[in-house]
């Protein structure tokens, strides 16, 4: 019997210099898509997968801003909307409250830069159970990838340690992404992820993106002591143990 | 040499106390003027325009919950430290230059005052001397122009020294109802002097298609009139009503058509359109963006 997946680690821990100067004070995934912060769109995707607890990992300054966003009840806006006779607009703020339990933490500054560091920062909030890792700067249009990962996990063999999402993009510019190499002779087992390969070296057109599911078995590879590992491998530590699930159509 | 009896214009009051509720939930704790046009907050473009027009003091009329904006125009030592450690000198310069743009002054809009486009000048009145004119900008509006729109207005002010100069631009018939519009005097002493102005009237009832937007030069005459706090449409306190009152008293109020383009960010559609226009001006984005839109809409 598989354990249910209840928790997701959502990460927005970078400094987003490509969006300078606005990200000088606004965390990157607080930037809106039209009128909703990217992080909220991503958390809603997690909810579709049945997630009931979010551990949101941000920078130290971002932590305060996210905490305010998800937990402040914004009575001053309510008062203003009542005054302007537009109380219906407050529903959009109420929807923020109906999101799952969200714990906002700052990424441990002593950890090196890398995609595994936010997960290590969140480990104290995760028990002995499977969890999702969601990079907030990837947004899904259509069916929840988080849900697909959870469904795949529930149907998977017991020795599968992790499941990563990938999308087959035939004409993709491989030099911009992590490209999946499948284990020889398998359809859905991960051999490795090649970061930004040249066109010639690319093992496939399967693009890895920011949705992962980890079982408690991976924890032993996530020790803060293994700094070099965390720094250089990003999610490469998955590659010998993971199961890659079939490509996801978005 | 004749001494100019008028002080140069060095202060800009920028109204940023709105709630931006059309952009909820993003504006739940992000001031609307901190929403980006691509990678720079809207307010940054306004400050740039003011500075390029000779302004040295930026007075931001804010409300509770807008510290993100104050932090934006201040140093962020933590971030600077990280960038320094990583040798990112170009990025370091971008963020270190922001606090140097101008002298930033913050004043809170008080709850007991009526809500409206004229309220921020009452909030800022003690920061403006009686013998100086000042720039007034609304945080919703951005402009694309060879000569900054604010500079165009300052030039007009310095030529005629009227009670006020407001920027106007012709809008389509169906858009007239969204804005304050003006009626010009039949035989003005000064070009573009107005006889009257009115807020948000439908086409046909509105004085004209010349719509006022958030760039003005104001003087103490306007301050005195604004003290009366006469509220108008929807119980709000409108700048165009204040200017209308002055024009009716025979004071000189110039509605200057601008060279360039006024764009608004007041609602999601116009915000996206404005973002798109700005992106088309950027060499690093234009071609790829156009190709993307072609692909997505074909």
Structural class of chain B: alpha/beta
Number of domains of chain B: 1
Strand content of chain A: 15-25%
What string gives the helices and strands of chain A in order? EEEHEHHHEHEHEEEEHE
CATH architecture of chain B: Alpha-Beta Complex
InterPro entries (chain A): GalU_uridylyltTrfase_bac/arc (IPR005771), NTP_transferase_dom (IPR005835), Nucleotide-diphossugar_trans (IPR029044)
Catalytic activity (chain A): alpha-D-glucose 1-phosphate + UTP + H(+) = UDP-alpha-D-glucose + diphosphate
EC number (chain A): 2.7.7.9
Organism (chain A): candidate division WWE3 bacterium CG_4_10_14_0_2_um_filter_41_14
Q: Overview of this structure, please?
A:
The complex is a heterodimer of chains A (250) and B (298). Helix content of chain A is 25%, strand content 22%. With 250 residues, chain A is an alpha/beta fold. Chain A has one domain (7-244): Spore Coat Polysaccharide Biosynthesis Protein SpsA, Chain A, CATH 3.90.550. In chain A, strands 1, 4, 5, 6, 7, 8, 9, 10 and 11 form a 9-stranded mixed β-sheet that branches. In chain A, a hairpin with a 7-residue loop joins β8 and β9. The longest helix of chain A has 12 residues, at 60-71. Chain B has one domain (11-266): Alpha-Beta Complex (Spore Coat Polysaccharide Biosynthesis Protein SpsA, Chain A). In chain B, 32% of the residues lie in helices and 22% in strands. Chain B is built from 10 helices and 13 strands. Chain B has helices at residues 42-52, 67-72, 77-85, 89-97, 119-124, 149-160, 220-226, 239-248, 268-280, 286-297; strands at 11-15, 36-37, 40-41, 57-62, 103-108, 134-138, 141-144, 164-170, 180-184, 194-199, 210-218, 253-257, 261-264. The chains are: A alpha/beta (250), B alpha/beta (298). The A-B interface holds A 15, 17-26, 30-32, 34-37, 40, 60-61, 65, 68-69, 72, 74, 76-77, 80-81, 83-84, 86, 89-90, 92-93, 95-96 and B 19, 21-30, 34-36, 39-41, 44, 63-65, 68, 71-72, 76, 78-79, 82-83, 88, 91, 94-95, 98, 115, 268, 271-272.
């Amino acid at each position: 019997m598989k354990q249910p997946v209840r928790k997701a680690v959502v990460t927005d821990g970078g400094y987003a210099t490509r969006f300078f100067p606005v990200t000088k004070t606004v965390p990157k995934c607080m930037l809106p898509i039209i009128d909703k912060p990217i992080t909220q769109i991503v958390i809603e995707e997690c909810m579709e997968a049945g997630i009931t607890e979010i551990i949101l990992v941000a920078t130290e300054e971002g932590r305060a801003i996210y905490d305010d966003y998800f937990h402040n009840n914004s009575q001053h806006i309510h008062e203003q909307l009542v005054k302007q006779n537009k109380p219906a607009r407050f529903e959009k703020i109420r929807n923020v409250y109906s999101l799952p339990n969200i714990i906002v933490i700052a990424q441990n500054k002593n950890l090196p830069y890398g995609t595994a560091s936010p997960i290590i920062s969140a480990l104290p909030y995760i028990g002995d159970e499977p969890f999702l890792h969601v990079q907030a700067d990837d947004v899904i249009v259509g069916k929840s990838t988080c849900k697909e990962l959870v469904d795949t996990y529930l149907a998977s063999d017991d020795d599968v340690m992790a499941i990563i999402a990938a999308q087959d993009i035939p004409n993709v510019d491989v030099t911009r992404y992590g490209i999946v190499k499948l284990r020889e002779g398998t359809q859905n087992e991960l051999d490795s992820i090649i970061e930004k390969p040249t066109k010639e070296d690319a093992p496939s057109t399967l693009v890895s993106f920011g949705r992962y599911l980890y079982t408690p078995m991976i924890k032993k590879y996530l020790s803060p002591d293994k700094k070099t590992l965390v720094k250089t491998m990003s999610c490469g530590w998955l590659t010998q143990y993971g199961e890659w699930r079939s490509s996801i159509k978005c | 040499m004749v001494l100019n009896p008028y002080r140069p214009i060095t202060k800009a009051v920028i109204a940023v106390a709105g709630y931006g509720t059309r952009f909820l939930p993003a504006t739940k704790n992000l001031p609307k003027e901190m929403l980006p046009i691509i990678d720079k907050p809207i307010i940054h473009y306004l400050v740039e325009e003011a500075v390029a027009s000779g302004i040295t003091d930026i007075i931001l009329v804010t409300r509770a919950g807008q510290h993100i904006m104050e932090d934006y125009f201040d140093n962020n030592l933590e971030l600077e430290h990280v960038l320094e450690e990583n040798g990112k000198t170009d990025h370091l310069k971008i963020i270190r230059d922001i606090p140097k743009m101008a002298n930033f002054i913050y004043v809170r809009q008080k709850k007991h005052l009526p809500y409206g486009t004229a309220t921020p000048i009452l909030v800022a009145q003690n920061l403006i001397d009686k013998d100086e004119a000042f720039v007034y900008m609304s945080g919703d509006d951005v402009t694309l122009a060879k000569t900054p729109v604010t500079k165009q207005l300052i030039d007009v002010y310095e030529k005629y020294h009227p009670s006020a100069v407001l920027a106007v631009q012709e809008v389509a018939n169906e858009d007239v109802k969204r804005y304050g519009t003006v009626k010009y005097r039949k035989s003005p002493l000064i070009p573009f002097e107005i006889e009257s102005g009115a807020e948000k009237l439908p086409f046909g009832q509105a004085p004209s298609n010349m719509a006022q937007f958030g760039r003005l030069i104001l003087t103490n005459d306007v301050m005195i009139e604004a003290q009366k706090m006469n509220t108008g449409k929807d119980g709000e306190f409108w700048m165009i009503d204040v200017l209308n009152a002055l024009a009716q008293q025979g004071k000189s109020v110039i509605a200057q058509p601008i060279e360039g383009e006024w764009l608004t960010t007041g609602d999601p559609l116009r915000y996206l359109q404005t973002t798109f226009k700005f992106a088309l001006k950027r060499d690093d984005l234009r071609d790829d963006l156009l190709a993307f839109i072609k692909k997505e809409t074909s």
